[in-house]
Design a protein that fits this description.
- The complex is a heterodimer.
- The two termini of chain A are 40 Å apart.
- Chain A contains 16 helices and 2 strands.
- In chain A, helix 1 packs parallel to helix 4 and helix 14 (361-391) packs parallel to helix 16 (443-481).
- By secondary structure, chain A is mainly α.
- Chain A has a two-stranded antiparallel ribbon with strand order 1-2.
- Chain A is globular.
- Chain A has one domain: Up-down Bundle (Cytochrome C Oxidase, Chain A).
- Chain B has a domain at 16-52.
- Helices cover 57% and strands 0% of the residues of chain B.
- Chain B contains 3 helices and no strands.
- Chain B has helices spanning 3-32, 46-49, 63-66.
- The longest helix of chain B is centred in the N-terminal third of the chain and has 30 residues, at 3-32.
- The chains are: A mainly alpha, B mainly alpha.
- The interface between A and B is medium-sized, with 33 and 32 residues.
- Bound molecules: protoporphyrin IX containing FE.
- Protoporphyrin IX containing FE binds at residues 28, 31-32, 34-35, 38, 61, 64-65, 68-69, 72-73, 363-364, 367-368, 371-372, 375-376, 461, 464-465 of chain A.
Amino acid sequence: MENRPLEYDYTVAKMFMLTTVLLGFVGMLIGVILAFELAFPSINTVLGEGLAEYTNFSRLRPLHTDAVIFGFTLSGIFATWYYVGQRVLKVSMAESGFLMFIGKLHFWLYLVGVVAVVVSLFMGITTSKEYAEFEWPIDIAIVVVWVLFGISMFGLIGMRREKSLYISVWYYIATFLGIAMLYLFNNMEVPTMLAASPAGETGFGAWYHSVSMYAGTNDALVQWWYGHNAVAFGFTVPIVAMIYYFLPKESGQAIYSYKLSLLSFWGLMFVYLWAGGHHLLYSTVPDWMQTMGSIFSVVLILPSWGSAINMLLTMKGEWQQVAASPLIKFMVLGSTFYMFSTLEGPIQAIKSVNAIAHFTDWIVGHVHDGVLGWVGFMIMAALYHMAPRVFKREIYSKKLMASQFWMQTLGVVLYFTSMWIAGITQGMMWRAHDEFGNLAYSFIDTVTVLHPYYTIRGVGGLLYLIGFVMFAYNIYKTMTAGRKVEESELQNASPMGA
Amino acid sequence: MDIAQLQAYGYFALTVFLTLALYGYIYHLYSKKKDSDGHDYEEYSNMALHDDISDTPVNAISDDKEK
Ligand code: HEM
């Protein structure tokens, strides 16, 4: 056998890159369909009355959220872990047959889980808890997938040559532990087949049905402790892990302040877990908990901006790179959008603002300036940086990447501005009343007024989706037709074709 | 004192404790500048910048054994 020098092994990273692109496309396509269904309700029955069950808004909405969260984002997290993990720990997966096996098993079981989720949600089987719609058999499968991820992660950490853990690794570990804890507690459920009524009847529902172990206000509290922290540990922590690796690496600049990254980390961990109460303002949750949710949400600005500013300052003196490289543009705009939505969120969490914002489209606008501008941009940038290194080829087209950047930026801006106007209009109209306290408008009045904004949102979403297709095409061409490159070209800035 | 009141005091104490711990940590980071292995924290950025498998680790795990 020839004695080749040791190399990083990206087999598993490549597998997850594929699902990132695939599920990203599916999830965003469904998002665009949803957006147009809200603007033009006849699209709900576009495939005829017979199939309306499968095409209507309520059936598709959880498919969108779960496809983009647990499909696109999670695949992106796994793909980048299997790439960044090896590199900053300076150990190759090729060095351990066991970890290679676990990594592949992790991928294939994940894929089985994805299929089970898609099929069951399409069939309308759901627990009705937001972002936790899966029934208990799938929950168990997801726990197995997560444990495999854990074995992979800690296995690699156990073999490392680099004694200290790079800051990104801290964030990946936090993602693992955070989601494990949240998922387990929120999905405590009792299969209905084990239930009995006071009259002694048994055998309720199908075998896969279940009810939450919590009830009423407690259920709501656990649900939003989960829901908000799904944002924390799915959309923030792992994405921060990515930017702390990919931005310094791509730009060749050391992190502006490594110390700041450490203390923002602990700040984020300390504060985030208490903020979930802001989803339940003016509900039956104890008042002090609502106040706590508000206060912690406002405090959350500090650690969030700690990371974001640290990233922007990393570019200090090197701003010409932002102009020159579309890849850096994605990351710099990503961290700007991160700052933006972590300022907007706390504002919405202030009780008096929430009285207008809650239940309106402003919330949806807030969600999407975060996920499109921050999560989506960062994951795409990470894949763009990884592609030349895992395929040993130059990125197919820089021009295409730049056009994609501008198209998607325009899409995000159209999305959130229309939702701001829609949301605030809605909030004001719902609460408007005459001098005797009679409501000034009925619900349908608001629907009529909102129609143009819903259409604009649909167009914004469509632009983002087209941009995503350009991204997928660019990655595909990189893989198949990009110019072959040498290791020496891959130090910092990624090589790009015209 | 009922359980709810105890919980509230406990919660308050925990918040104060964690705040002090966080500020203590900031003070520690910026006054010591180096960790217990004698590495300046800022050197750790190099873990990402020099991350080829043949690059020398910033803080190699085998250092301890070789000494
Ligand atoms: C092409 C881009 C996208 C479009 C057009 C789109 C559209 C939509 C629509 C129409 C809704 C339902 C809003 C409502 O119920 O009124 C929604 C909800 C949601 N979307 Fe998207 N979406 C897109 C991309 C994404 C991405 C990439 C993510 C995450 C990574 C995401 C995460 C979510 C979440 C978490 C919700 C639930 C919001 C809530 O309950 O307040 N979306 N999206």
